[in-house]
Amino acid sequence: MNPVLTKQDFxxxxxxxxxxxxxxxxxxxxxxxxxxxxxxxxxxxHIRNRVANGPTWFDINKGDMSTVLxxxxxxxxxxxxxxxxxxxxxxxxxxxxxxxxxPTNLHILYSTARGAGANMRAVLPxxxxxxxxxxxxxxxxxLPVQDYDWLRHLLDSYPEHVVEFTTLTxxxxxxxxxxxxxxxxxxx
Length: 188
Known about the structure:
This protein is of the alpha+beta class. It contains six helices and nine strands, in the order H-E-H-E-E-H-E-E-E-H-E-H-H-E-E.
């Protein structure tokens, strides 16, 4: 597979489903609005950034979207740099983190925190670290078999890349039967 060298390249490939299970995703505000204004069942969203390490906004109420976007624009963030996803219910977190396989070991930075506000950016600064057989054991115990197999596929297909994921206690995302979302694959 081609390496992921930029965040913009990643976002395009992510939205096309190259990296596996993900929440419903809209690449533009117009696409999001077309699908979600009115009587949509979805009520809460996550605004993500196409700029590496750029700001992201969690748990946005559908009714507040235009106000939030106005505030974001007043901070100098371009609407074209944003994309939109369904918000994950972090009260149902099982494990989330970042996995990388080096030539000598598998490494995982992870958290099992759950609750409102337990998104990846919030929990990783205090996350646990494991490597080698301990990391493999944690992943095998915490991820459903099909999700662990997909994680292995990503690590094998994208050497020298970090894979970000969240596994929930319930099915989630666009792939039926999956409990794990793969948020990002990036070159380290």
